[in-house]
Amino acid sequence: MICIKTISSADNHHHMLFSKSDIDYGNYFKGSPKYKIESFEIDEFQKISHLCLDRNENVILAAHTGSGKTVAATYSIRLALENKTRVFYTGPIKSLVYQKYKEFQKKFPNKVGIITGDCVIRPNKPIIVMTTEVLANITLNNFKKLRDVSHIIFDELQFMGNPKRGKNWEKAIINSPKDINFLFLTTIAENLKTIALWICDLKMAPCHLIKTKKSLIEREYLLYPCIENNFNLLKENDKKFNDEIFYNVKKKCSLEDIDTNHISNVLKKLLLKKCYPIFFYCNTRIDCKKFSLKFKNSNFLYEEEKQEIQKKINLFITKYRQYKIIIEEMNKYKVLLLNGIALHHSGMVLALRNFIENSIISKHLKVIFTTETLAYGFNSPVAAVVFIGLSKFDELGKRFYNFDEFISMSGRAGRRGICDKGTIILMVNKILEIEAINNVFHKRSYPINSQLQIDYQLVIEMCTIKKDEFIKEFLVKTFKNFQNNTLERDIDLYDKRISVLQKLNYITVDRKLTSKGSIFASISYNPGAIIITELITSFDVFGKCYGLSAGILSLFVCPHCSDKTNAVNNNILDDFEKIITKIRNIEKEVKISKRKLLKINYCSGMFKRIELKMNNKPKKNEKPIVKINSNFDNDDDIAIFFYVVENVLKLAKRIVDHLGEGMKDHFEHMIKILHEIDRGNGFLDY
């Protein structure tokens, strides 16, 4: 039985305790934390979180965007350093992790390291920032690394509900030692009480839920109907949504697309109010480029600012002078940058994206056209954000932003102590877009639901541990089971998955990995691991040609796209179908339900490019020579190409040690060629 009680409730916060026993805190929360870590006076909700951490009690801190959640993270780090222990900070995406790495380095010089899938720097330092995926792997396979850790900070807890990333959160939380203190940072979500109950039950220790009741940043939401060329106040701070204005604008909507003239009108109005820097959120990368180039002859910088950014550009070119593609990218956008304009999206090389982010922080850029890439992992606020439409493309196709995405994106406008007022402008022209606005403002946050699946990846990971009692204990502890009492079904499905893998010769009767199983285990993080393993061990497709082998691996690491012009050849697709049919037949044989049958997604967007770039086959002892032609069909795809190269390399390196001699030689040489592509272009330079 868990005791739930409210400790305090005020105008700006609500504090609840979840505990196995009724704890009497007396006047404890009227006192002061052990350490003063900020020069300014902290808020009551921050003070309460610090006092909870002083008692080594777990905390879920849910605060509106820009309210100062990071202050609690800094306090948790200070406690670990004072106690001469270590602290792990985890974030859901690499961009956020790199941002925090830089931020913590400034606050705690020479005490910070970083671990991601591609980058390890000073891993023995007392403060380590990492992706949640890395932490999940550490808790499963490298328990010794947690020996001196006293605190783990989970930033952006709402990502536990993300279909792609959520399972790593659950694994990391379940498998961490009970005596490690947890601090969860999140935006407001529907079911945080349920998560607090789960954490209390899981760790057999108190868990505090501290929530802000309202945003501490003054924000105004303005509707800009393009047909009128004026701003309409739709909502201000926590006041009521203005239905009258909304329906008046709705009547005037047309079918006309938003164009450069509309954007120019919005920009002029904001500049007159001295409201900058400004993010213009675009639906696609192509729109980012199109709109930014339309303003290339506009200038938003004073002469002194121009000189400063010119110096930064010169230093950048000197640093990356041997990397042709990076220099080409910089030269392409230099005119924009010198006028205080930039674009930012995932199709740009990482070095240039970092340059743009640093230039926003240093206030050398005033107008930025971006996709949602700057909504997460970027801690420098802007004065205004402008939505040029409210839709995005993902693996599901085109859809409108949901509530959580909209809140994160609009939350870039304004930040406490830096920019005290934020302006959010919604440009609308069409009925569908105005309805999307209505939905966003009238819906509440989504609940955070378990994304843990009893799939083949999980089964293989558990078989590497080789302890049946651990598996049962793990399934008992899942948030999935806590939410929906799924234990019996989960164990049944787990055992059926075991039977399938045994029939496919991945594991033995006593549940140990075979040599085939060890290949799967080495790349189990990848959803296509079972198909890749089958292709290597049972089909004659790998080993023929380096380009073909790398192209096949690219199918399982390429971001999902609608581009089918680079489609893979039909013979390989036939092999895919044979593998999936074979596995599904076995699944049906062991009575796995139709809903749980194997499903594999792939993307062929970079297959032909990878294959063609590797088509120079050097002799075995020759140094690979790879000619990279940067003239892609769409130059926005350069970064995607090198992202795929990086991840194909990662797959190949993990696989190679588990192969027989002939195939091992083939993979080793393929790795050399991929390294040459990487080194020749410097895309992966962090």
UniProtKB/TrEMBL annotation:
Helicase ATP-binding domain segment(s): 50-207
Identify the residues that the record assigns to the Helicase C-terminal domain, covering every copy.
Answer: 296-466
Gene3D superfamilies given for it?
1.10.3380.30, P-loop containing nucleotide triphosphate hydrolases (3.40.50.300)
- Source domain of life is Eukaryota
Q: Which UniProt keywords apply?
A: ATP-binding, Helicase, Hydrolase, Nucleotide-binding
The GO biological-process annotations, alphabetized, read as: maturation of 5.8S rRNA
Q: Which GO terms describe its molecular function?
A: ATP binding; helicase activity; hydrolase activity; nucleic acid binding
> What is the protein name stated in its UniProt record?
Helicase ATP-binding domain-containing protein
- Which organism encodes this protein? Strongyloides stercoralis
